[in-house]
Structures
1.
Amino acid sequence: MINSKLPKMFYGGDYNPEQWDHATHQEDLRLFKLAGIDMATINVFSWAKNQPDEDTYHFEWLDELIESLYENGVFVCLATSTAAHPAWMATRYPDILRVDADGRKHKFGGRHNSCPNSPTYRKYSERIADKLAERYREHPAVLVWHVSNEYGGECYCDNCEKAFRSWLQKKYGSIEEVNRVWNTSFWGHTFYDWNEIVLPSNLSEHWGDNKSSFQGISLDYSRFNSDSMLECYLLEHAMIKKHIPDAVVTTNLMGFFKQLDYFKWARHMDIVSWDSYPGLSTPYSYTAMAHDLMRGLKDGQPFMLMEQTPSQQNWQAYNSLKRPGVMRLWSYQSVAHGADTVMFFQLRRSVGACEKFHGAVIEHVGHEHTRVFREVAQLGKELQQLGDQTLDALVEARVAILFDWDNWWAVEKSSGPTVALKYVDQVHKYYAALFNRNIQVDMISVDSHFDQYDLILAPVMYMVKPGVAERLERFVQAGGTFLTTFFSGIVNESDLVTLGGYPGELRKLLGIWVEEIDALLPEQKNRIVMTQEYGSLQGDYACGMLCDLLHSEGAEVLAEYGEDFYRGMPALTRNRFGQGSAWYMATDPDEQFLGKLLQQICEEQGILPLLDAPAGVEASMRTKDGKQYLFVMNHSAEAQTYDLGVRSARDLLSDTEITGSTTISGKGVHILELG
Ligand code: GLA
Ligand code: ZN
């Protein structure tokens, strides 16, 4: 429980008073109170202010700031300021500057730009975390520690190259093993000495749109890069814990962020926090999926919504305003999926540089009489009224989708069979089919426990890691339902193909053999023709992108291809295995097909929608102490009607009793405590 000292959802966000004078700070405090703001994330980008040179540190301004926030009822999420190194440090110690994939050494500028293997960066970031933790270890205002900010990017400098070799030595032990897992007999790449290994960049193995001549090398570089940044996080983390063993330490993640294996990171975070920046055209099912992934990082523990914009961003091509009600709606959507805080970037809009056109609670006009401020203040009031009711409540799902960063990297580094295959898009397609029916989903790692679920989906499980196939077999054997798709079971964790026929280790479970994989041109389609009715599936449906040409080895064929030379070959199979069944979707079907398929599979398992509601109305449930909180969210602009059936409920937001058929306004939210 992060909220023991402030038993409600924290409300506030990034605050950068170092950009303002004293009078403005005073005015901010008045406005925070008006908006119901009780949490400020500070010190995110103040390293240069904190440390003007090698040996001098100035934290007096922070002392004063923390004190005045606290006196005004605002708690602190204290960042360590290490996400942008000072200019003097870069001039004096150029090893802190990154080298990009084209081999260009960067100069001072921007942020999130320190080389993760720079001895200078590691030394000074560790030291400042140490000093901050020592100084504020007993301060009652500091409730959360925020290490650095949005780790990401890559570095290809000589220090990283050396560190990569050590990382490989530790992982593989011998150069022979490295040669084996990278299959270096291909294109005469055999290495005889560790020093012959270089980073896979545009100067070596990489070409085109993020493609690699050696996927094994590039995959290991991605793992190494993620680990290097994690080591930086851990250095600061250790300093904080040294002074404050029970500190709540986090760093703000970014949802489906490709470069870092967040499942690995989350093990070292006391609470997951993340920054949610959907564009106006981002499907709201995608945002929901990202929240579910963030909840899944720590086995379903609630997370912090660390940042979202109150109104607009500056870094998109077209920075539309969140329409009236949308900030509130999306805030509750994050809560519905497991957030225990609602926080913004930023509290006051800066006067210069690239974020001056980024939305803020306090706009350039400087007062409270704005649409954005009014909406923020209304939500602030509601969160105060909700108090601790939903805090720590869990989201319970019977359906899980497997998600895996190594698989993501490997699928998209693959040369062939198609550039159209995007892992997250495929996962989203399956997620959305369930989401649209208000079926709750957990996004889990391949290392999670499977037995609590009835249905597990693994779209494009190209890479099968050691032991996963056996665990899935046991899951199905015991009665579970498993579904995977085309381009699954192809390689092991080193991106080496499992020989003897696709889908490799999953072949027995699925009862099929995939002989060939056809890639379709963007405008090309095939047809899925049902060989029997299944639920409401009958007749034929469009499919495309990839088509597996497969043979059943015991699996039942529910649909076949309708076109081309492989007309009549299986397109959808189900294999009875022990008490359960394992499905294979051999191609990329249209949404209608997928919706009906998953609806029927769920129905057979007795997995029912949370709510019978029209399109555009989302439902998600959190439970706590035997109480059920059903969040109903209307993403459409018009009022909608949904039916609670025989259930009765109290809407916590309007404090009214609700039964039967109910109207929810456009962009409206109900939080129903079910009776
Ligand atoms: C990120 C960063 C913030 C800010 C916002 C703007 O989330 O963490 O510092 O730049 O983006 O959207
Ligand atoms: Zn580097």
Note: The mean pLDDT is 97.
2.
Amino acid sequence: MKILVTGGTGYIGSHTVVELIEAGHEPVIVDNLSNSKESVLDGIYGITGRKVPFYNVDCTDLEAFGSVFEAEPGIKAIIHFAASKAVGESVKEPLKYYRNNLTGIINVLECMKRYGASSLVFSSSCTVYGQPEELPVTEEAPIQPALSPYGNTKQICEEIIRDTVSSCNTLHAVMLRYFNPIGAHESALIGELPLGVPQNLIPYVTQTAAGIRECLTVFGNDYDTPDGSCIRDYINVTDLAKAHIKAVERMESGKQKQNVEVFNIGTGVGTSVFEIIKTFEDVTGVKLNYKVGPRREGDIEKVWADASYANNELGWKAEKDMRETLASAWKWQTTL
Ligand code: UFG
């Protein structure tokens, strides 16, 4: 199946392109390279032996984005990753986030209608749950007021998708609420390429271990958790990528129960920051220089997924464990 992947040279996008090819699909990439490099295509080629059609196009530009559909007739599905994703930056530059993320999804839906693509997979986030009252968190948990413009764009995009799909009976969507994606492809030919100082834990850990950063700061050790540090559900990026293939195939084979479905994509296991540090040191044999600092504003104390709906309905399950995933993140770092 011909599938358009927006943000296909990005972190999750590139891993998904690899999995699409390995599942026999024909991905086409659209990316404006605002947070990735064209050389990612070489990594994809190195893993799959396939040269994927690539369009350096910003999907907020409706005319340019539409021209990709003209050049690539027969696109059936879109996996939409292209979006701005830094929580802190979104607080400083909210208009950038509302413009990029909302215009992006509007143009994707507009082009789906215009060019007859029927299935959409949307990258949502567990951020929509805020601090859930009950853990593990299910898809039925209430959506909480967003803590950042970034989080708000995910909630608004979900609403835009629901309204558009219910107004048009040819459209279908699956919204995947990701927990924390980490790690890299086992080949270490693709992985995460954070620009500047990493904001996320794992790239900060690997850069500190590599000597690029002097010291990792653990943001708070006084949370109401067993060791005092925050807990997240860290999901291997290749496992996460595979959920997108399941989602597209579910829509195209008519197995959806509703025209819009939501799935949590996580492991179901919560891991603290201190546990990450300890496991990383253990797996790599590298001692990590770290200190405890104050809490980071806006951090959720603890969240992990109830992924049973994805396990049972989507036929998807996280397979890789934390040790293997941290080893892959380290292997990738050492190639940079
Ligand atoms: N952390 C540190 N030190 C660091 C970086 C992070 O202690 O240098 C801690 C954070 O406090 C948090 C955990 O590591 O407890 C994970 O932090 P990340 O920044 O890696 O991830 P977040 O859970 O904060 O954010 C992620 C995504 C967001 C998304 C959010 C909620 O990056 O896009 O999950 O879904 F919005």
Note: Residues 85, 87, 125-127, 151, 180, 199-201, 204, 216-219, 230, 232, 273, 296, 299 surround UFG (CB under 6 Å).
